[in-house]
Amino acid sequence: MRQRVLLITGASSGIGAATARAAAKEGFQLVLAARSVDKLQNLAQELGPENVLTVGCDVTSMDDQQSMVDQALERFGRLDAVFANAGRGGSPGGFSGADHHAWHDMILTNVYGVGVTLQVTLPALRKTQGHVLLTGSAAGRATIPGSMYSATKWAVSGIGYNLREELRGSGIRVTLIEPGMVDTPFFDEPPTHALEDRDIANAVMYAVNQPEHVDVNEILVRPTPPTE
After folding, report:
1. Which of 97, 159, 160, 220 has CA 20 to 30 A from 137's CA?
2. 219: which strand partners?
3. Which residues does 147 contact at the CB level (< 8 Å), separation at least 6?
């Protein structure tokens, strides 16, 4: 069987890097994209550079993302799965007092960037009847006072549902990965009760390793509540 090719955005740390490690153990060829090129290159050396392509990419740039796909196809000739994972947090203060500049960058990354990832990768995924995975959030299924971040993850949930309908009958599967609190560099201070990034990587690998007739629509993963 030919090695499957998995592209991951936001791959330099956290969930993206953990997923790259998990996929490498299962024999995937990897396209790892992020703004932090040095971190990507270190990760590629760890995983074995012969099966890893690293691409510096700002997901808010159509040119960067198209170049990412062009390089992936030139190197590996195909895309079998795409994990649109790049994202960023917002600013404290709620709608009344948050830094609107932080909103701007977050919304572009978390919503527009996901849309661009889909647009540039779908032509290749149609050829392989591949798999799209999106990093949503438990925050995209709950009402959180004053949270623009939560609103962007509601948008990702909507993208996942709407994309699935657009692709119905194409053979392409769509999976929303929706973590609760995860201990990653996303947070300035490590959360006291949280999942590990590898827990989410395991969820991704569960979805991509299902047989072709199984489409895992959503995986909501939360930490076990602390014992009293």
Report:
1. 97
2. 177
3. 90, 94, 139
* Cα–Cα distance, 125 to 123 (Å, whole number): 6
Neighbour-count burial of 100, counting CB atoms closer than 10 A to its CB (0-12 exposed, 13-18 middle, 19+ buried): exposed
Predicted confidence band of residue 184 (pLDDT cuts 50, 70, 90): low
How much of the chain is helix, strand and coil, in % rounded to 5?
A: 50, 20, 35
Q: Under a CB-based contact definition with an 8 Å cutoff, are residues 206 and 165 in contact?
A: no
In angstroms, rounded to a whole number, what is the distance separating the alpha carbons of residues 163 and 110?
Answer: 16
107 pLDDT higher than 60 = yes
Percent of the chain with pLDDT over 90: 83
State the pLDDT at residue 190: 61
CA distance 52 to 70: 15
pTM for the model stands at 0.93
| Number of neighbouring beta carbons within 10 Å of residue 1 | 4
The rounded distance, in Å, linking the Cα atoms of 72 and 82 is: 11
Residues annotated as catalytic are 149
- Quote the CA–CA distance of 137 and 149 in Å, as a whole number: 10
- Name the pLDDT band for 225 (thresholds 50, 70, 90): confident
